[in-house]
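PROTOCOL LOG
Step 1. Enter all chains and additional molecules of the complex.
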Amino acid sequence: MDDFYREEILEHYTHPHHYGILECPDISHEEHNPLCGDRVRFDIDLDDDGQTVKDVRFSGVGCAISKASASMLSDLIVGKKLDDIKALTKEDVMDELGLNLGPVRLKCALLPLKVVKAGVYGLSGDADQASDDEAQDDW
Amino acid sequence: MLNSQSIRADFPILSRQVHGKPLVYLDNAATSQKPEAVIQAMDDYYRRYNANIHRGVHTLAEEATAAYEDARRKVGRFINARSPREVVFVRNTTEAINLVAHSWGRANLRQGDVIILTEMEHHSNLVPWQLLAQTTGAQLEFVALDAQGRLLLGHPTPPGSGHSLDHLLAANGERVKLVGVTGMSNVLGTVNPITDIARRVHDAGALLLVDGAQSVPHLPVDVRAIDADFLAFSGHKMLGPTGIGVLWGRSAILEAMPPFLGGGDMIKSVGLLSSEWNELPHKFEAGTPNVADAIGLAAAVDYLTGLGMDQVHAHEQDLAAYALDRLAAVPDLHIYGPPAIERGGVVSFNLIKDGELLIHPHDLASILDHEGIAIRAGHHCAQPLVEHYGVPAMARASFYIYNLEQEIDTLVEALLKARHIFGLP
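Step 2. Run joint prediction.
Step 3. Record the structure below.
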């Protein structure tokens, strides 16, 4: 249990980074996990080039795992190119979290990534690609 | 080459006796026997990690969820699906086809639309479409068979025969919305050329549903290669337990379909008046699913994969060829269906002379039972097909990986004994 809810996770949970909403975000996307009721929204502002994340906020309700995952992910994507965000994998998120989760809790941990990728792909008019990426992960 | 002798040791039931004789199980088209590995896998689930799935976060629930979703992935790889999301667990082939008829059919069919089936379909790929036709006003058309029990696909058809697939597609044009065909006849053993059929059906702008109840357990089936749109099959005919089956569908088509049954696990969010559906495949899996039997099916898939489906098919073709050859030695024995090279391990026959049954198949089956031999007698849930041959019933022997040539010898001896009992020379 010490391992599981280690300090870093709890720290992100109690003091999440980039928590809140943006006024007029370039990207805003929300999804929820029907299994446990987690709900996550990401707002993203882009640089003038339209390709780089300038600022990010996330909001929603969720467990410590999903919130910590969202918080860590927000750190990860600030300053990143959209193409790099599209290339993020579930392993990248799990490396950040440093947790070994079963399939049920994995859904909690990966919801923020799903939201961000769906938002980014949605901007480029390629929303289906997000679920294709996820479908690849299903194997 | 399969080593059927060593395979037999994996199947506890095969060591039992029936009426004091060793069991000769030749009713595999009805259901297969189960290897120890399948029985063990389900036993293990109930003894060690029984829990409901997808919701709980405790260890048992995590383990059960992982096992259930692993089963989906295994089944998906077995048929070369593009994603496990295309794999929907249902009770059996019948439920899978009913799901498509109910969900896809009611959303897409209008009065005057046409569904094309064939004269060799099992009732499971017939009755759901009859129900759909009654509620939507769609009409059913049927591809006829040639004298060898093969589907008529192209023009021109022999004089006096029924309609070919090409004829029905051309005559009904855009009104044809779906074609449903069995991958392999459960009566005649005919293996249908699904890739060829899929091309004709898609050229006409319709969808293709394949009833894989007999083909998936016995032949290599690759959904990308055959290019079908739906494939339905049952676990219990492929070494797995009863109560678990699969609907595979192209994800874009499944996405666009409304749910089949409503309830838990198939929703994303629920209000009092309306709800949002869960993603694939869960949209079609309302309620607590059959976790134990999905795990059993995965063990069956592992077992078959270990043998190699090419080897399974080759073994059954060898047995069918041997059976056709040996049965020819029984006087008045008529075999239905195509030559061995075009069939799987299914042989239906009658003792018949001048159009009259010498021994009714039910009597044959009872006499064979007393010799320890299990065969099937009746219309095999394909009444129109059996009637097409002008008989009320047929006897059927069907083979699987554990059957031996010497069991066919035993069958032939028992048939000769049946003739003797009925006073036939």
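Step 4. Note key features.
The two ends of chain A are 29 Å apart (CA to CA).
The interface with chain B takes residues 32, 34-36, 102-105, 131, 135-136, 138-139 of chain A (CB under 8 Å).
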